[in-house]
Amino acid sequence: MPTYQYATIPARDGDTVEYFEVTQRMADAPLTRHPDTGVPVQRVISGGLGFVCERAAGGDGAHGNGGCSCHP
Known about the structure:
Blueprint: E1 3-8, E2 19-23, E3 41-43, E4 52-55, E5 68-71
Antiparallel strand pairs: 1-2, 1-3, 4-5
């Protein structure tokens, strides 16, 4: 099961934002309240694994010489 990060939603300027993690099934609805305090929360969207594909100009199409080089 994936672990999701959540953040409390401050009620007033200056309120501290608390970050916490919860392990949930992907099919579970996102939390709307902190499980311990009941404070409103929102799920934090963070980066994941991505790929960058670059095609260099010229070359014979071989990897690293004009071909596509993918980097995670």
